[in-house]
Amino acid sequence: MSTPTDTPVKNPPALHRPRDERRLPWYHLVFTGLAGLLVAVAVLAVAGALSIASAILLGFVLHLLFGWAYSLVREGPRWATDRLMTLLVIGAFAIAMFPLVSLLWSVIARGMTRVLAAKPTTLAFWTTDMSGIIGGADAGGVAHAIVGTLLITLWASLISIPVGLFTAIFLVEYADQGWKRTLGKGVTFLVDVMTGIPSIVAGLFGLALFIAFMPDQSVRMGIMGAVALSLLMIPTVVRNSEEMLRLVPTDLREAAYALGVPKWLTIVKVVLRTAIAGLTTGITLAIARVIGETAPLLLTVGMVTSVNWNMFDGRMATLPTFINQQYRNGNANCMSDTVTNPVNQEVYACSISTNIDRAWAAAFTLIVIVMVLNIIARLISHYFSPKLSR
Q1: In the Cβ-directed half-sphere of 138, how many Cα atoms lie within 13 Å?
Q2: CATH number for the domain including 245?
Q3: Number of structural domains found in the chain
């Protein structure tokens, strides 16, 4: 007596084919892309409107058409639709990346040239300030602006990170019932409102806060800028930290409670330790959010040409305000081939584009600082996050 398993199942012939038999290799899309680009160049050349941007745009549209039609013939309507959607996603990604890559290329190309060619020695742009640099003197650097940026950002972080992290812990771990839940909803609403505050308003807040308690209305200090930046930084820290803490499984908390671990110790040893990678990333994003702000710093810290290490006395230079000042100066007027420094009597060559070059080099310096901070954050999350067992 035969069983159902003894009788071979007769499948349609199509099911005996390999799953990828009707799929085209990836390089077929390259061929359709080249065909679309060549046709676009030919059409635009005949129309007299040939340019790199127009060729890329029209070539991509033709690539969509050719790729879909070719896939429809070779693979069928199902895979043709898949090819079309894939090309649209790739095109959207390319459109989003183009301005970013273009910006990075411009800043690195124009900024690195000034940094590496700084006088009197290479990288002197990072180790000298603007004391005595006047006119079109081809000298000076951003040491004073780097110091000011790092100090103000550090103090803003010292204010924002504890406040933002403790607020997120309260919203996730404690605001679950009763009056705490009501308070948590109010705090969440205020955090959402603070997220949309314009940076100029934060600068006005920091300025008004200190002027209200000081007789000198013209006072400007680094701590004023740190407070203004912390107003912009706190909402970002709260929202990012809250989301990371909510991702920690509840089972980990319950396991710690079952062992008799107090709630505060569970939060410190289990919750925060588990979410350390996401928390570090969120804090880094918050720092990157404020380190390039210009409007609050123009109102609160002003601008100087020398290094100021005291956060509570005198104006301070920062990279964003330095970039703004140099770019506003525009091209220099060179009445002669040289410029004399009135402070140390050194003689520098006069360059018409020196102000613009300094602005690009300062922008490049700011990007380098943000990259270094991201690397530090990655190292912290790598070494302090819990390791997975093998």
Answers
A1: 16
A2: 1.10.3720.10
A3: 2
